[in-house]
Amino acid sequence: MATSNTTHVSLKLLIDTRGCKVLFAEASKDVVDFLFSLLSLPVATVIRLLSEDGMVGRMGKLYESVENLNDTYLQPNLDKNTLLKPKTTVAAGANILPLLTNNINVDSNSKQFYMCSCCNPLHISDVCGTLCPNRSDYMSIRVTYVSPQASSSTVVAKSGCEGGYVKGVVTYMVMDNLEVKPILSTISSIAVLNQFNVKDVGALQEKVVHLGMQEV
After folding, report:
1. What's the helix, strand, coil split of the chain in %, to 5?
2. What are residue 46's phi and psi, to 5 degrees?
3. Dist. CA 198–CA 195, nearest whole Å
4. Among 2-11, 75-84, 102-111, 203-212, which stretch is predicted with the lowest mean pLDDT?
5. Do the Cβ atoms of 99 and 7 come closer than 8 Å?
6. Using alpha carbons only, what angle is made at residue 113 by residues 110 and 119, rounded to the nearest 5 degrees?
7. Pick from 173, 155, 185, 196: nearest CA to 69
8. Which pLDDT tens digit goes with each residue over 37-81?
9. 162 φ/ψ angles, rounded to the nearest 5 degrees
10. Phi, psi for residue 74 in degrees, rounded to 5
11. What are the helix (H) ranges across 38-169?
């Protein structure tokens, strides 16, 4: 679903036409990676401090989904705490903006670091001209940050990691409150229908929607 400069990710909605509401969505790895990437923003720290019950809106449920998701479905290089307790921008995982804009070099162009010409142990700084703690010299040798997306083929070949936050081994269910969980079997979907007390299966309708930069 690509255009000249934008890529879309898709998800399938299951709609109760009688009740006029979306029951849940079937989402691919890319969609879940995007939802989880929202927690890489400082908002994850806010959620943790306020607690789920004190969080306005549905972000608390999204936070809880990461807490409850079995490590089996997470990429091997990902620590949950990078999402649940972010210190700065999450390093491991996905950046949905390059995915949706077909630009894998966004991070590479925006992140630059500097080091001293010769010192041991090495130190780096994100500010050119910082005084090296090892010697009376300034850190001015530029080191360019390379994002995981820019070298994804190498990462996959070496570690077997798909990139992003979750694995693409299953389809994921996203509820209207942003709760995310893997669909392990058809029984999982049937259980959700029972949860919503759906009596007329014939009133259910599927609809595929596409998310691009504008929708995000």
Report:
1. 35, 20, 45
2. -65, -45
3. 8
4. 102-111
5. yes
6. 170
7. 173
8. 777 766 666 676 666 555 556 777 888 888 899 988 988 777 788
9. -80, -15
10. -95, 150
11. 43-50, 59-68, 81-84, 96-101, 106-110, 152-159
**What pLDDT, on a 0 to 100 scale, did the predictor assign at position 205?**
93
Give the whole-angstrom CA distance, residue 64 versus residue 80. 11
Can you tell me the distance from the alpha carbon of 135 to that of 132, in angstroms, rounded to the nearest whole number?
A: 6
Mean pLDDT of 93-104: 51
Residue 172 is encoded by which pair of tokens?
Answer: 């994921």
Name the region of 36 (left: φ>0; alpha: ψ -120 to 50; beta: rest).
alpha
What value does the mean pLDDT take over residues 177-201? 87
Quote the tokens at residue 113: 């670091």
* pLDDT tens track for 129-164: 788 877 667 778 888 777 655 444 444 434 455 677
DSSP 127: S
